[in-house]
Amino acid sequence: LYHMLLHPNIFNDVNGEYPSLQSNEKLNTASNKILKINGFDYYTTFSLWDTYRNIHPFLSLVYPKKQLDMVKTMLSMYTEDGWLPKLVFGGMETYIMVGDPAISVIADTYLRGIRDFDIDLAYEAMKHNATVTEANNPVRPGMDNLLKYGYIPEGEKNKRGVWGSVSTAQEYCIADWNLAQIAKTLGKEDDYKLFYDRSMLYKNYFAQNTNFILPKLSDCS
Q: Is residue 167 a contact partner of residue 98, using CB atoms and an 8 Å limit?
């Protein structure tokens, strides 16, 4: 329990001021602004690829106020940086590891009944992460190929920042399934069908001859 509560950690000072979110240097969006929040704590050190499956569901059950503040932080990060966080260390967005895990955290939180946050802004942010084309989307490398082929082809020519074609695609499917559940809850049936169908693309990796999930080349082999 002690280790589970080490991170994420509060980043703002006692007066609510904190350094604005910065992105890694290759994106050229770093700034030195001091911002101020009111009414909640602003967190950092979101190792979301590691924690969306366990730490955040746990916090939702045991420390719902902390979890709520973390979701509000993620929405603040979207407002600051234009993207929901992927992997943030010390106020710096690194955009490393796989998937789009903030979507799963927000969906899980909302569907557990922790809803004292702007769900319209949250849905806008989640959909933005999931739909902006790859060339302009630092969160989802390989997404264009996933939508084009139904899978992300393995191979150097297609990777472009993809940390494992299978892992990346499976994580996008998980995020899209969670987004579909929120769309359904909000009565957005067209979006529900779109993201649910996308979430089922994981099946394209299943090899019947081995009963394993395996990578595929661009020629489907």
A: yes
